[in-house]
Design brief:
This protein has 178 residues and is of the alpha+beta class. It has 2 domains: 4-133, Quinone Oxidoreductase, Chain A, domain 1, CATH 3.90.180; 140-177, no CATH class. Helix content is 17%, strand content 30%. It has 4 helices and 9 strands; from the N terminus they run βββαββββαααββ.
């Protein structure tokens, strides 16, 4: 296996022009991890918020920083104790840190599922974030339940943040059901 990978990086906050592709060491899997040869990776709104520096006080980047967490690809190496997936398996999932926008990424096996064969690489690579949001929406309180839900504030509200307007920032609100 080639001992170099390529990854999207940024070494300062800013617009998309701070991004560059760089050669990085090939990741080595630790116990319970696999190396995935990435076929597709998502660009989510939060990735852009992090890169811009808008939330640097809450989520500071460590430079140089990688990009993305949602990915789909093929397992090319496995760490100690990994029984599934095996080399050659097609998987989708997410990385624990910003490293999915690369040719190869290390991923804990608990954060992977088998990629359905009928699902395109592009759809599989973007499924984690949107799939999680869809699941959360389906599990949201019903209209009847909402009468029992109280809205509370925790922390400070970020400028432009509104949970009802996707892509406009982060909300420091949380909901509690009686």
């Amino acid at each position: 296996m080639n001992r170099q990978a390529r990854a999207v990086r940024f070494d300062r906050y800013g617009d998309h022009d701070v991004l560059y592709v760089n050669e990085v060491p090939m990741p080595d899997p630790g116990p319970g991890e696999v190396v995935v040869e990435v076929r597709a990776a998502a660009i989510n709104p939060f990735d852009t918020v992090i890169r811009s520096g808008v939330v640097r006080e809450l989520f500071p980047a460590t430079f140089p920083s990688g990009r993305g967490s949602d990915l789909a690809g093929v397992v090319v190496a496995a760490g100690a104790g990994v029984e599934w997936p095996v080399m050659g398996d097609e998987v989708l999932g997410w990385t624990p840190g910003p490293s999915a926008q690369a040719t190869h990424a290390t991923v804990p096996v608990a954060q992977l599922v088998a990629k359905p064969s009928r699902l395109s690489w592009e759809a599989a690579g973007s499924l984690h974030m949107v799939g999680s949001m869809a699941y959360a929406a389906l599990r949201a309180p019903t209209r009847r339940d909402r009468r029992r839900v109280r809205r509370r504030r925790r922390g400070r509200h970020l400028p432009g943040a509104d949970a009802r307007s996707p892509g406009r920032g982060l909300s420091s609100e949380w909901w509690e059901v009686d």
